Amino acid sequence: MRGPPPASGKPAPGKRPAARSAERLRDALSLLADGKLDAAQSCCDAVLAIEARELDALHISGLIALRRGDPSRAVKLFNAAIRVNPGEAMVYNNRGLALQDLHEFDAAMASFDRAITFRPDYADAYFHQSLVLLLTGDFDRGWKLHEWRRKLSVAAQTEHTVIEPGWLCHDLTGKTLLLYSEQGLGDTIMFSRYAKLAAQRGAKVILAAPAPLVPLLATLADGIESIEIIEAGAEVTAIDYLCALHSAPLAFATRLETIPFAGPYLHADPARISTWETRLGARTRPRIGIAWSGNPSFKSDHTRSMHLAQLLAHLPASCEYVALQNDIRAHDRAAFDATPSLRFFGDDLRDFSDTAALCSLMDVVVSVDTSIAHLAGALGKPCWIMLPYLPDWRWLLGRADSPWYESVRLFRQDGDRSWEPVLARISAELAALARPESSEGR
């Protein structure tokens, strides 16, 4: 699943630093990209010691503060950079990201607007505005501005020519529509529901998806002959209309009250369920599936993922735990090796059909915001999602449920941005689930 892209890191134009300072600033950007924040800040500090109003050093320091999870300091640094050069669009854009992180959404929108004033075609600022609007439930404006993602420098390249999603002004009856995935696995699972909606409108639907998802998404087509699932990149001919999955909500004019298929719309293969049921053996306690980290290449992964040791410290022994992710990060290896009771199947999860079957055998799935959470929601399994203080737009604000998935419960960080209160609530809920009176009705 994708959230806001990384803050723009290119130094803002301004007073040209001396050669040595310019080299240090280039190093700071490289170190920031590698997550070496202390070293990056040291480079900026060396430049600021020579010139306290050096624009690029202030700007990059703001980006470092934002990456550290200190948006208040980031805003101060961006404001200092703006005082040096009040006309730099990139700094206003990044200040908007920091204000958004503080839940100061009106101020964030104003900062993005200011960026657009100086650069009317600034795709990043428009896109970031779309995320604020979607997060706050303004789907009418949000979906329209979300189309600016196509013009981002980091926009995913697709195999297909992109057109504006205006095809629903036509009658889909008897027409062939190609829907294609453009972002992560979680996003593809979430938006694949629109294939069923298009089929209900009379279309022959071809859904192009990443290879690991193709067997799972084939269950969308059960009983619906007009849906075909193909691997992304496969040759397609004779289509009438084309739409990226992320543009489908705009094309279908989706509002909060019209989100389609909030109940289960995918299911696991019964044969694979049987195989995994045998492998798991008899159930003696509530069986809990867990996923504590997502794709490490995702730029905001540091806000959504946690260390395994932190999660394990809050899991009551009264339940059985099964890892639903198929990799263990290096920093989690010691905690994993010290917990032989945690069941882990690694490469035996060949694709998402295996993960779906294993997920189907859980009483509850406990997950951070990653593809496992979307999988559980699409299967209709009870899923408790742990969210950072600034969640991805699709989880909205201030609610414990999701209009996208009926079976999901949301556990949110407070303004202190700590996982500890979230994990304490999860622990209490799991302990209650394991009490004898809770298991009688299962």
The share of residues in extended strands comes to 5-15%
CATH H-level superfamily title of the largest domain: Glycogen Phosphorylase B
CATH architecture of the largest domain: 3-Layer(aba) Sandwich
Q: Which CATH class of the largest domain applies here?
A: Alpha Beta
Shape: globular
Average pLDDT over all residues: 91
Q: Provide the CATH topology of the largest domain.
A: Rossmann fold
List keywords for this structure.
single chain, 442 residues, alpha/beta, Serine Threonine Protein Phosphatase 5, Tetratricopeptide repeat, Rossmann fold, 3 domains, four-stranded parallel beta sheet, 9 strands, 43% helix, globular
